[in-house]
């Protein structure tokens, strides 16, 4: 299967933002056999209202111990290579420390990126929130990464939990979780998810009008 074009990616992201939510997209991925696409449930938005939709720019982080000749490794390179519409997605090191903060947010936003998802922690919470930039993480923890973690590669395949993430895959996060839509099937997934979401609206209307859930499920096939 072919990767999405830039035009189809933009269309898919616009459709997700306008009509979709992670549960319905996750259901479609299940139906197509992609059953390990949600990131661990401990990764969530800094606020319940945050949503992120964009192309993955994966980043690989490793543990280090003590001062480094190049603090933070290739972090600044990764940030400076972000492109408009991308999401910084980091497979973090195992040592507990922050993987995202105020300056990273400012850089990513200036580059046209649309969010950050880190398998780790963020810090500078009030200063990030003031920038109106969606950040999904395991929570707030101020311990610095400089002597604990180092970016060793980016635009490379990574794995967070059970989910494999490749450059260009679609990232979609809301209050119910963060999922990864493989680029090769993104057009199909979004199209089917739109149909399911609209059908769910019809089911809700039917139930509100008095139909039982049993009859609604028999009629529409969704629940």
How would you describe this protein?
This protein is an alpha/beta fold. It has a domain at 35-181: Glucose Oxidase, domain 1. Helices cover 34% and strands 24% of the residues. It contains seven helices and twelve strands. It has helices spanning 6-19, 22-31, 75-80, 102-111, 125-129, 186-208, 213-220; strands at 44-45, 52-63, 86-91, 98-100, 115-118, 121-122, 135-137, 149-154, 158-160, 163-165, 170-174, 177-181. The strands form three sheets. Strands 1, 2, 3, 5, 7, 8, 11 and 12 form an eight-stranded mixed beta sheet that branches. A two-stranded parallel sheet has the order 4-6. Strand 9 (158-160) and strand 10 (163-165) form a beta hairpin. Helix 1 runs parallel beside helix 6, helix 2 (22-31) packs across helix 6 and helix 6 (186-208) packs antiparallel against helix 7 (213-220). The model has no long low-confidence stretch (mean pLDDT 94).
Task: Specify the biggest β-sheet.
Answer: 8 strands, mixed
CATH C-level class of the domain at 35-181 is: Alpha Beta
CATH architecture of the domain at 35-181: 3-Layer(bba) Sandwich
Low-confidence runs of at least 5 consecutive residues: none
> What is the mean pLDDT?
94
Q: Level of helix content? A: 25-40%
User: Looking at this structure, what is the CATH superfamily of the domain at 35-181?
Assistant: Ribonuclease E inhibitor RraA/RraA-like
DSSP strand tally: 12
- Name the helix and strand elements from N-terminus to C-terminus, one letter apiece: HHEEHEEHEEHEEEEEEHH
């Amino acid at each position: 299967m072919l990767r999405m074009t830039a035009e189809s990616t933009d269309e898919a992201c616009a459709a997700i933002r306008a009509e979709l939510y992670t549960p319905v997209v996750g259901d479609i991925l299940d139906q197509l056999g992609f059953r390990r696409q949600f990131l661990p449930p401990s990764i969530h938005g800094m606020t319940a209202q945050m949503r992120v939709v964009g192309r993955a720019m994966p980043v690989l982080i490793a543990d280090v111990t003590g001062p480094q000749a190049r603090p933070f490794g290739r972090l600044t390179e990764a940030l400076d290579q972000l492109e408009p519409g991308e999401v910084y997605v980091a497979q973090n090191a195992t040592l507990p420390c922050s993987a995202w903060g105020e300056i990273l947010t400012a850089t990513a936003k200036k580059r046209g990126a649309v969010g950050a998802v880190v398998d780790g922690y963020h810090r500078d919470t009030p200063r990030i929130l003031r920038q109106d930039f969606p950040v999904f993480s395991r929570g707030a923890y101020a311990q610095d990464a400089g002597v604990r973690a180092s970016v060793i590669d980016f635009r490379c395949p990574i794995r967070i939990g059970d989910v494999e993430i490749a450059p260009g895959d679609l990232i979609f996060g809301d209050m119910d979780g963060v999922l990864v839509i493989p680029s090769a099937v993104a057009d199909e997934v979004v199209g089917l998810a739109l149909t399911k979401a609209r059908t769910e609206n019809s089911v809700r209307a039917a139930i509100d009008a008095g139909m039982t859930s049993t009859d609604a499920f028999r009629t529409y096939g969704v629940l």
